[in-house]
User: Fold threonine synthase from Dimargaris cristalligena.
Amino acid sequence: MKYLSTRGGAVGYSFEDAVLEGLSPDGGLFIPESIPTLPADWAEAWANLPFADLATRILRLFIDESEIPTADLAALVAKSYRTFRHPEVTPVRPLGHPADRRWVLELFHGPTFAFKDVALQFLGNLFEYFLERRNQRDAAAHKEEGHLDPHFITVVGATSGDTGSAAIYGLRNKKNVQVFILHPKGRVSPIQEAQMTTVLDPNIHNLAVQGTFDDCQDIVKALFGNPAFRTKHHLGAINSINWARILAQTVYYFHSYFAVQRQLREQGHGPANLVYTVPSGNFGDVLAGFYAKQLGLPIQRLVVATNANDILDRFFTTGRYEKSTVTDAAAASAVSETLSPAMDILVSSNFERLLWYLARDYAATAGQAQSGNNNPSVQAGEMVRKWMDQFKTTGSFTVDASIHQVAQQTFGSVAVSDADTLDTIHRYYRPAGWNGATATDSSPKQQPQYLLDPHTAVGVKAAEVMATRHPDVYGPTSRSDAQGRLTYTICLSTAHPAKFSAAVTQALTHGDSSAETFQFDDVLPPEFVGLLEKPRRCIDVAPGTVEKVKETIEETLGPIETAQ
Ligand SMILES: *Cc1c(COP(=O)(O)O)cnc(C)c1O
Assistant:
C-alpha cells in the first residue's frame, strides 16, 4: 500500500515515510492510494478476536508485509495495548434506559485516561521501531566507517491538555526520540498539567509558555516553518494529521461493532443497525469511523458532535465550510472556550481527508466532463487544493449540492451548548427520581447511573437530539429498514470524567440542593491519587518569542547531541 497527498502533489509514499513525515510537502495530508478489501470471511473470522489480534489484522491491510513483517507488527500492537487497564482495551457498556438503545464505547482506559492513547501508544512504538531499524541498517551497511550519525527525531507539539499528555506517555523513554511539548502556563487543567510534568524520563521536556494555546501553536508552526531548524533537528509531528493515528483508531469501530452485536445476541435480540456518535474537534476520531465504513463495516451513520465551535456541524448542515460566521476580524479568529476544551478548534485539520473522498466520488460521476483529466484521484487532488486555497484566502468555500448530499448520507451532525452538556452529565449520573440517596442505597432506581465526562456528554446529547429529529429511525419500536432491524447508537466516550473534574462537579452541583453528597474522590482513579504532589520537571519559557523556545530546545538538545 502506497500513500498519496490529498492535494495531489505527492504520490508513492511508503507507510514509513508517510508516518515519519506527518504532513505531505505540498501541505496536504497522506491517505492510502486505495481502500483495501476485507477478507471474505471477516464478519465471522474476526468477530471474537481480542483487541490486539483484531488490530494486527486491520493494520496489516494498510501496511505492506515488506514494510513491517507480521510478527513485528503483532509485537508492536501487543506492546501498545498492554499499557491499557481494561482487558478488552476499549469496552462497551449499555447507557441509560434500555428503550433508548444506547451504548457507550469507553476509550479512556489507556495511560492518560483519554482516547488519544489508543493512537499515541502505537505511534510511539512505531517511531521507535522505524528509527532503530534505520540505524541498524546503516550500521550493517557501513561497518568499517565507525561512528555514524544516528537517525533520530525531535517531536515538537503544542497542547491544550489531552494531546500533550497522551504524546508524552506514548513517547516516554523511546530511543532516538526527543519530545518537546508546549502548553499554555496555568491554562491546562491541574490534572493534565500534573500528568505531563510528572513524567521524568530524560527524553521528555515540558515547556510552559506564558500565553494561550494559540500562542503555543503559533510557535510550533513557526518552528516547522523554519527549514534550517526543521532539518537540523529532524522535527516530527504527533498531531492528529498523522496517518498512523487515524489508522489505529479504526480498530475500535470494528471491535465495538462485534462486541455490541454479540451482547445483543446474548440478550436474545436480533442483529442491529449501528449509529456512532463522536465528540469531534479535529475530525480525527470520526474520520477513523469513516475509514471503517469504507472498508465495509456496516455503520448506518456517523454523527459528528461539536460544542459551540461548530464549523463541522455548519458544514454538514449547509455544505459551506466557513471558519467563522461573524464579520468582526478579531472575534472571527477566536476559539470559543467551552467545557469540552479538547474540542475547542476553529478549523478541523483532518476534514481535508474526507473532502478528498467526496471530491473523488464526485469526479467519478458528475464531474468528469469538466476536466481534461479523467482520473478521479487526480481530479480529487485538484479539487481539494482549490478548496483549501480558497479557504485560506477567503475563510470559506462551498461544495456542490450533490457533494453535500452525499456527505449527509453518511454523516449527521449536532452542535451542543455548554448548558446542555452540564444538563446531560447531571441527568445520566442522577436519573429521574433521584432523591439524595447515596451510592450505597440498594434500590437500583436510585443508584447513580453513569458519570460522563463533558466531551462524552456532548456526544450523548447529540444522540438524544438525533432521536428527536428522526423518531422513525430511533423510536421505541421503529424497524426502519427492509430487514426489520432496530437501530442502536454507540456513543464514543473520549475521556474519563476525573480528567475534567471542574466541569463534572459543576454539572453535579448545578441546581441541586443535595450537591454535597457528591464526592469526587469516590470516582477518582487510583492513578490520580497523589499525582498532584509528585515531583515535576518543566521549563518555564519567558514570554514572547519563538526565539526563546528555539533557544530552549537547542540548549536542551545540545548536551544530548554531544553525548551521542
Ligand atoms: C482530542 C479529543 C477529542 C476530539 O477528537 P478529534 O479526533 O480531534 O475530533 C474529543 N474528546 C477528547 C477528550 C479529546 O481529547
